[in-house]
Design goal:
The chain is α/β, with parallel strands linked by helices. It folds into two domains: 5-249, Thiamin diphosphate (ThDP)-binding fold, Pyr/PP domains (Rossmann fold); 251-284, no CATH class. It is built from eleven helices and eight strands. It has helices at 22-36, 55-58, 71-81, 93-99, 104-110, 155-162, 175-187, 208-214, 227-234, 253-269, 276-282; strands at 43-47, 62-65, 86-92, 115-120, 166-170, 192-197, 215-217, 240-247. Strands 2-1-3-4-6-5-8-7 form an eight-stranded mixed beta sheet, sandwiched between helices. Helix 1 (22-36) crosses helix 7. It is globular and about 70 Å long. The relative contact order is 0.13. The model has no long low-confidence stretch (mean pLDDT 93).
């Protein structure tokens, strides 16, 4: 019997603020799982800290609510241990671009076959409104009462420079399109980042009405294999383009790991047995 979105809901009721964009992100992800008919027991969800950290509680999958900024490497470890499972990582702009930002380039260069849903509301919502790595200059926050003065990050451009093999931007304001993008990310073999602009209703640094007016789908003839063109659309300040900015196929980390495992096993088949002491000595 085919799974429906209900099969991916846990028994824990979401407690985000009414009107929070994260409800739409959760619904979109559940719909993507259902459309692909992935069995809940074949999914691992790892989440970080912040409002988005609750995702692992609300999904009926194998789940782990990790420590601050460590969701990506934890998900990488899960995929290395169980390459047969679908691994999804969920984090916010603080968790993913702040303390955990240093993990993204390494997941990208290894090209781990996992999907990272990075939800950005441009503020630290759960901890009551501090400046985040993407807060625009001049916005008043709890940690910048006279206005933020630091240059905000450009996440899409960063992901492109890291060599991420699948990069997309979307928003819960385009729910159907977002679910389709998530499906594409989940089926892509490699490190996929779905960058989601999700308005916070309590600290509206990213106002819903303004965001709705700026969202524009990438052109129908857009070439998602053109990295330089992706930079051009990522830096556009007139519109916030949504869709798949870049996609390429290349070997994934799990393939390399399996290759090394087979090489090590070949020594045993040849009758060569190494002790732990001999192995350690070979690294001296």
């Amino acid at each position: 019997m085919k799974n429906t979105s209900r099969n991916y809901k846990s028994g824990i009721k979401p407690v985000w603020c009414p009107g929070c964009g994260d409800y739409g992100v959760l619904n979109g992800l559940e719909q993507a799982f259902a459309d692909l008919d992935i069995a809940p027991e074949n999914i691992i969800t790892v989440s970080g800290i912040g409002c988005s950290g609750r995702f692992s509680h609300y999904l009926n999958t194998y789940s782990l609510h990790g420590t601050h900024g460590r969701a990506v490497p934890t998900a990488m470890g899960a995929k290395a241990a169980r390459p047969d499972l679908t691994v999804v990582c969920v984090g916010g702009d603080g968790d993913g671009l702040g303390i955990g930002g240093g993990h993204i380039p390494h997941a990208a260069r290894k090209n781990v076959d996992m999907t990272y849903i990075l939800i950005d509301n441009r503020i630290y919502g759960l901890t009551k409104g501090q400046t985040s790595p993407t807060t625009p200059i001049g916005v008043r926050t709890k940690t910048a009462p006279y206005g933020a003065y630091e240059l905000p990050m450009e996440p899409l451009a960063m992901f492109l420079s890291y060599g991420t093999s699948f990069i997309a931007r979307t928003s819960p304001l385009e729910l159907k399109r977002m679910a389709e993008i998530m499906k594409a990310a989940l089926t892509h073999k490699g490190f996929s980042i779905v960058y989601v602009l999700s308005p916070c209703v309590t600290f509206p640094v990213l106002p819903m009405k303004a965001l709705r007016e700026m969202l524009v789908p990438l052109p129908d003839d857009y070439d998602r294999e053109n990295r330089l063109k992706a930079y051009e659309y990522a830096y556009n300040k007139e519109h916030l383009y949504t869709g798949i900015f870049y996609q390429e196929e290349r070997p994934v980390m799990e393939d390399y790991l399996q290759e090394q495992i087979q090489k090590s096993l070949s020594y045993q088949k040849a009758g060569t047995k190494l002790t732990v002491e001999e192995l350690l000595k070979s690294y001296a």
